[in-house]
């Protein structure tokens, strides 16, 4: 029997992306969102695979809402950019199979081929294997890890990377230096940093705010960042070129 | 009469780049460096255009050394990545024409076409105009500004940009997260940041240390950066998604 997929919060950008993906692979898809006639519980009760595509802060709440309505043999999944809290919330909310996923790409991608999806097993093997096979057959790179390790790596790959780009934008604003001001004096490196910052700021601000706030591992990454900044500033304030050269050689 | 160019510190990478550039435009070039038979003073006394291609911290010292030996009608120039202190030092060391320059590219560039050179007029017009025309005829984008404005903009374009990349590398080292660890979990944004960091760390550590230490405007940029980081952390520590969204909207 072909499983039915319920996308809760499915009218959002990633929800619509997943709708196209699953339909193109031949799966019936139910969409529940604030403006659809179908309620989250109703959609969840009629599907084999229930995927929460809601903003990170409400994953736990929506999991509790739909949990009691899932079929016993169904699976509860999410696509949040952080994994520890959402996965724990889903395991609490539903006694059946649970899988945490994190597609490492945005809704602008036309095709999943070559893109990475992280899977964090929660409970059960049947639907985990089904999803992994489905993604791999579609050409995705699947990486399996724990929610803790996912969040630790993402505190660098997303948390820290976005943090420094946001800080660059905020610093320029603080200094009153505009893109126009620096345009004539730009270097290739700076031009690349500026375009990454511009791209980040043009996207969903709430998602990027949640990625900063909701990953518990970010605290460690930001503490390490603060120490690293302190080390570099130590040498700059002392005008100690030799010390800074040593630091640069060490991190090479 | 075709002017002779003296490159002091001319055996370094940018010195050799300039040697090829001036020779290709038909100018006789004299090279003085620690390992050449020709002394800096001797080379300076025989040229119409004397260009200091030495590391930033020794520009002032070398300017004082060669200043008394320049022909009265000659010009003293430099190529340092910061401009206020080197330009002031050259104006002090030599009473004739002085031009500060900053080629915004590295010695790996095969051709000057399309690349930017910043010129900061010091004293006199004749050699300034000669250089500007020469660079423009060769296809370079020439930008003229004061040393103060150059350093202010470069405190962002170079100082801050390099600072955050160095901080990213230092943070990863502090956390024990290697490139291999994150390879499987990378995003396009993070991949780009990591390759910029790798490129920076593979280059001349002393030059990058000097760019941090020797630009007096970096203090202001780093103070603004510290404040920006504090603002972002304020919201993260309070788990205040709405506050962070406001900040992201403001800097957009």
Task: Fill in the keyword field for this structure.
6-phosphogluconate dehydrogenase C-terminal fold; Rossmann fold; 7 strands; 2 domains; homodimer; alpha/beta; elongated; 7-stranded mixed beta sheet
Word description of this protein:
Two copies of one chain form a homodimer. Chain A has 252 residues and is of the alpha/beta class. Chain A has eleven helices and seven strands. Chain A has helices spanning 13-24, 40-45, 59-66, 84-93, 126-137, 147-175, 179-183, 188-201, 205-213, 218-237, 241-251; strands at 5-8, 29-32, 49-52, 75-78, 97-103, 116-123, 141-144. The longest helix of chain A is centred in the middle third of the chain and has 29 residues, at 147-175. The radius of gyration of chain A is 21 Å and the shape is elongated. The interface between A and B is large, with 81 and 81 residues.
Using only C-alpha atoms, the radius of gyration of chain A works out to 21 Å
Mean pLDDT of chain A, nearest integer? Answer: 96
Q: What's the total number of strands of chain A?
A: 7
Assembly category: homodimer
Q: What is the makeup of the main sheet of chain A?
A: 7 strands, mixed
Of all chain pairs, the largest interface belongs to:
A-B, 81 and 81 residues
CATH architecture annotation of the largest domain in chain A: 3-Layer(aba) Sandwich
Q: What are the low-pLDDT stretches of chain A, counting only 5+ consecutive residues below 50?
A: none
Distance separating the two termini of chain A = 54 Å
CATH fold naming of the largest domain in chain A: Rossmann fold
